[in-house]
Amino acid sequence: MIVITAPTGNIGRQLLPLLLDATPAHGEQLRVVVRDPARLPADVRGRVEVVTGSHGDAATVGRAFAGADAVFWLVPPDASTTPEEAYSGFTRPAARAFAEHGVGRVVGVSALGRGTPQAARAGLVTASLAMDDLIAGSGVAYRALANPSFFENLLEEAGSIREDGVFTDTAAADHRAPMVAVADIAATAAGLLLDRSWTGVDSVPVLGPQDLSPDDLARIMSEELGRPVRYRRQPLDELRSTMLGFGLDAAFVEAMVDMKRAKDESLDTGATRPPHTGPTPATTFARWCAETLKPAVLGAPDVQTAPTAPAALETVDAD
How far apart are CA 59 and CA 62, in angstroms? Predict the structure, then answer.
């Protein structure tokens, strides 16, 4: 039995079809934990067991993890509380349930940076790494998917790119760092969840095929969209003010700023890019632009353009 948390989020909704396609050959059953089962596609509901509730709730994970061999763990964003509560606080009931129900393997969504000088002061990344330690301490075999920024974060900028030809971030224009498509994270997670051979605790970097700078992104977007796109660097103080303007928890906002500062100081650039072993090639930024960003910019004028706290967090996903 494989249990998937956050099955309707950006990663979960791409992970589920991969597992559904593969599980007949592997003889695995699937169970999902979801607050609102109506958000699951109709063709999925009849093929999985559904546990309704929040996977931050002890009673819910107690039901969900009974008889489970493997769990996909993803903490949904909660910018109304402190980073420690948003990550480790949310995860503590699950960590107890992993041990109580003898769950063998857990694959979790986390962040790059472990072992770097910046990791201790990287805000949301620091909180995510502490969550990894909590899960590992439960006794399960654990693989933390160590992710950089997602291509999908640029969907926040679709309106600005459409109207003004501009996208915004905090990094220096020539600062190259890894970026990854959500589809590649889902594919990596599926491979690990279906593989019963691994043991112990480790991180698995999911880095995308190449490091990219904001200037690289602007050039590729211009080519794929057929219109000029330029980059604007946002000061961290401006980012802080914007997020506070949304009424977010001040400690959470500061942790987001600390994360951005650490990324600007090369938090994500120390990991070695492992050989790609998936069934399809890793997603290039040009391909992602053509398949995902271009329709959002050119074909959907009603797409959300205002930044939102969850969308701004590279290390988390929606529930």
Answer: 5
Evaluate whether 148 touches 212 at the Cβ level (below 8 Å).
Answer: no
The count of other CB atoms within 10 Å of the CB of residue 67 is 12
Query: In which element (H, E) is residue 92 found?
Result: helix 90-100
Q: Strand, helix or coil at 209?
A: coil
Tell me the pTM. 0.91
Tokens found for residue 292 = 């995902």
Which structure tokens are listed for 305?
Answer: 């353009």
Look at the block and give the residue holding tokens 């990894």. 132
CA distance between the termini of the chain: 21
Using 50, 70 and 90 to split pLDDT, how confident is the model at 45? confident
Q: Which two tokens stand for residue 46?
A: 């009849």
Would you give the DSSP letter of residue 28? Answer: -
Question: Count of CB atoms within 10 A of residue 148's CB?
Answer: 24
* Three-class DSSP category at 68: coil
d(CA 281, CA 278): 7
- pLDDT of 96-121, one tens digit each? 999 999 999 999 999 999 999 999 99
Give every CB contact of residue 162 below 8 A, 6+ residues apart in sequence. Answer: 297, 298, 301, 305
List phi, psi (to 5°) of 115.
85, 0
User: Among 44-58, 143-157, 257-271, 272-286, which is the least confidently predicted range?
Assistant: 272-286
Widest distance between CA atoms in the chain = 56
Where does 2-151+179-205 sit in CATH, by number?
3.40.50.720
* Domain spans, the chain: 2-151+179-205
